[in-house]
Amino acid sequence: MDRRLMYKMRGRPKSQLQNLPPINHRRHLRLRKHHFNSENIISTQECHFDSEDIMEGLGVAASLLTIIELSAKVATLCAQYAKDVASARDDIQRLQNQVSQLEFVLRRAKCLAEGPRGKLLVVSQWLTSTIVECVGDLRKLEDKLSPKPARQAMRRLGLRALKWPFMSQEVNQLLSSLERYEKAVLLGLQVDQTAMIVDIHEGVRNLSIQATEDASISRKPHYMLPFTPDPDFIHRSTLWDWIRDQYTQSARRMALVGMGGFGKSQLAIQFAHQVHSDSPDTSIFWVHGNSKETFEESYRALADVLALPRRHEPKVNVLALVRDWLQSSDVSAWFMVVDNADDVTVFFAKDDHAHEPLASYLPKTAKGKILITSRSLDAAEKLTGSERTILRIPIMEEEQALHLLRKKLDQEADEATARSLVCALEHIPLAVNQAAAYINRRSPLVTPKSYLADFRRSEKRRDGLLRSDGGDLGRPDDASNPIVLTWQVTFEQIRREKPRAANLLSLMSCFQAQNIPENLLHGYEDVASEEEVGSKGSGKSPDTYTDTDANTDEVDTQENFENDIDVLRGYSLITPTAPGLYEMHSLVQFCTRSWISEFGDRRRWARLFIQVTAEHFPSGEFETWKECQRLLPHVEAVVASKPKLEGVAN
Known about the structure:
By secondary structure, the chain is mostly helical.
């Protein structure tokens, strides 16, 4: 509308309006016509704003904000007109309601666009043309409804300045356009939300499929046994029947206890293969129990084999994850071997991180069985909870040892030589296996007969033969050691845990292997070598003073002695044969002396042996001959060695 038309309003003189400021047309919008019709609202051809100025660099949320602000302004202008123009109040109210509704829809759309999933509004990102048209029409509306400077001046002078600029038909067209924009935005959002719902559904479906796949992997039987069956395995019927009976009965845990090299692990390996053969649906798991680190590594490998969810999350307790899975109600039957669980402090020391002992991660369920192998009776009792489910593994019977030697040897051995050799090796499976490997590797220079001769020649030569390691693929990697080193691991463990018992073992190694009298086993608690005086606690020597509950001034009590004997019996190092008498395997004695010679002071134990024997040796009168005969074999062994000892009378 031309501003000169305003001069004629109310018949006011022209001179009163000469000083009115010129109309300030909006910089971004010029209208071709001064009247406002439906074509002007719908078409944007004559709008001189660039849509890229609005949309470029702006997302959906920013573009919607522009429309919201314009809608609010138009709604406010409509409210102003509704007060002053009564004749068009219905049309004004309809337009105001539609603009307010559009504003409400756009505000909700803006909230979605600014939300965490705003980038997923793919369809809404392509509403550029609709948004541009909507912005253009709203700006036209705003410009048409905004009071011009002339009108503002007329209102200040008390003149009636507002006149509704639209006919009813034009209002209907305006409403149709605004409804079209509203529906376009709603439709875009609806399509986007439907796509998002489909994506979410697909994601949930994928998770369900993955969970199903993981469950399928974890529920199927697994065979986690790192050792193949030993083709030279010697069936020991008594031991085998006991393990089979325990497995088929109600006991959930059982243990094989014995010295290293007695065949515990081989029995466990062979039985695990048998379980798999008899029951292919039963999972088999092998866990290394010799340290906290190997136990945890076995459980991590088990979690990977089972493909347990969350196992790779940094804060997840994998030990608890495996235990809980094995205890779940829908898991299939399983059989687990915990091998070399020798150190009780590994399983029952408090874990700094999980605040639970390692033993608590062994599952307790009717679906599974656990077989434990250990050198320590104490560890086995704590892990199984009952001595009734513990089997002590003895040495082989002579025929079994002979059969093992013949299987392992690559050459024939005559009957007498073969029997003499296995007897010299005391029917110990590891010793027999080690001797056969040595003979095979040096054949034909070494024969069973020449090996036996060397073995008997001297302690030095015997020590060299027993330290030879031929390797054994059927044994766990960390247990594939010669018998001397295998047993020294046990000796060192006793020295660390029960040093007083280690002293007793050192003293008993000086006796003849059979019929060691209990009344001569005293004075060992506070024995110190000359080199250790003033340097107690150096940690190098196995010759220690006392336990934590006993010092150098403590007397040798019967209770202490019984406790020390119990420790040695728990490790299968000694055996009571009659009241007051004990025996040791001669190879155990020999390896103990070798250990003392290498790391301690063998002379001081020989000195103590002579002292206690001299104190208790009878006078030699007729009535003491029986006691003399009992002690004589022990004395002869020391006299034959002719030790050069200071401070001992001839």
